[in-house]
Every structure is written in C-alpha cells, then in structure tokens.
Design a protein that fits this description.
By secondary structure, the chain is an all-alpha fold. It has one domain. Helices cover 77% and strands 0% of the residues. The structure holds fe (ii) ion (FE2) (2 copies).
Length: 232
C-alpha cells in the first residue's frame, strides 16, 4: 500500500475524493452562516455548492458509477448510490424553495444529514473499487480522463468547477491534509489524467486559484508546470 507521506504517487481519483472535502468545508461554512442568521451569504454559498455538485454528479451518474458497478459486480447499484443522488436533489430543492430563515434552516438540516452520510457512503464503497480500475497510477489516470473528465467537460462548467475546488482546497485543506497537500494531491492527480493540451489550460486555472507558495512547491517537487501525462 502506498504510504502517501513517504512515497507519494499520483492519485487521479482524488479528483472525486478531494471534491468531497470541498463539499464538507462548504457545508460547515453554510452551517455557520445560518447560525449567525446570514441568509444572503448562505444563499450565495448554497449556489456555489450546487454548481460544484452538478459537475461532480456529471462524473458519477452515467460516468464512473457504471464502470465501478461492473468492476464491483453490482456494488454501486447494491449500495443505492444513484438513488441517494435522487433523494439529495429532492432535499436540495426544499432548501432552494424555502423562504424564511426557519424554513431554510430546517430544510438545510435534513439535506445536510443525508448529504454527509452520502459522501461517507460513497467513499467507503467506491474507494477500494477505484484501485481496481487499473494496476498502475498511469492506467488509473487514463480511466479518470475517459470516464470522469470527458463527461464533466461535456457538462460544460469544468473551468469554474476547477477554479472553485482549488480555491477552497487552498483556503481550507481537507480533514487529513493541510492546504499544500490537499491542492497538490488534487492537481497532481489531474495532471496525470489530462492530455498535454488540457493540462496547458488547466494548470493556469490551478496557478491562479492557489497561493504562490503552494504553486512554487508543486513546481519544485512535483513538476506541476510540466505536461499532462496522457496521450492526446
Ligand atoms: Fe455522489
Ligand atoms: Fe461523490
């Protein structure tokens, strides 16, 4: 097993995993906003969340879910992950339609509980299966490109999604990773799932949404300013 602290390997599926961490930090921001009665700020952040989530869903439903279902002999269907998305969107609609602070807070609590459980459930079910998609980090980079990134690009909001994700990982890191590690794990994984043409655009989005310090560290230690690693 890879010991990330000692011998980092590029992990392209971290694109999904670290986006979950962006969701968690956003949920915590929104909880604080509601507690302080900042409904206007809450609605802005709610809009960010749902926008980021739509790109994330384009990587899962009809994209990586069918592949992992096949590899895991129906494990994704059995876990009901796609059905959890349906419930999530129903719960989210109630938050979006709430008019008063009280209604919003109540709908948000219901949505939040289900959403946090969903993120953890996916990590538990999907994590081991992602490692079975290919024996090498390079092979998994290709799978992530073809199975996650192409549908996300077709969805059409990838640049905004990438900017938002990098900005939030830079600001908050993840539960287990300080910001420099959180950004590097995501960006390095993305570089290994990108063609040279794609990476030449995406690395500029990474650079302009992280700190100079983190960018410099990624350049020195991980050649993040080099080419995308998969074939055009
Ligand atoms: Fe999901
Ligand atoms: Fe997810």
């Amino acid at each position: 097993m890879n010991n990330e602290a000692q011998t980092p390997i590029p992990m392209s599926f971290a694109i999904l995993r670290n986006t979950h961490e962006v969701f968690r930090s956003s949920i915590s921001l929104m909880s604080d906003m509601l507690e302080r009665g900042e409904l206007h700020k809450f609605r802005q952040e709610w809009g960010n969340y749902q926008r980021c989530r739509r790109t994330h869903l384009s990587m899962e439903d009809g994209a990586v879910f069918p592949l992992l279902d096949e590899i895991g002999s129906g494990a994704i269907s059995e876990a009901g992950l796609a059905q959890e998305h349906v419930v999530d969107l129903q719960n989210a609609e109630r938050v979006g339609n709430a008019s008063t602070s009280e209604e919003t807070a109540q709908a948000f609590e219901t949505w939040k509980k289900h959403q946090l459980e969903h993120l953890a459930h996916e990590e538990k079910v999907m994590g081991p299966l992602t490692m079975k998609t290919s024996a090498t980090p390079e092979g998994r980079g290709q799978v992530v490109h073809d199975t996650l990134l192409l549908p996300a690009l077709e969805h059409g909001d990838f640049d905004w999604y990438l900017a938002f994700t990098i900005e939030r990982l830079t600001a908050f890191g993840t539960t287990n990773q300080p910001p420099n590690v959180a950004v590097r794990v995501y960006a390095w994984g993305l570089q290994h799932a990108a063609t040279p043409a794609e990476w030449s655009e995406w690395k500029e989005i990474v650079r302009s949404n992280t700190s100079e310090e983190i960018w410099d560290e990624m350049v020195t230690q991980f050649q993040i300013d080099g080419d995308g690693k998969i074939k055009d």
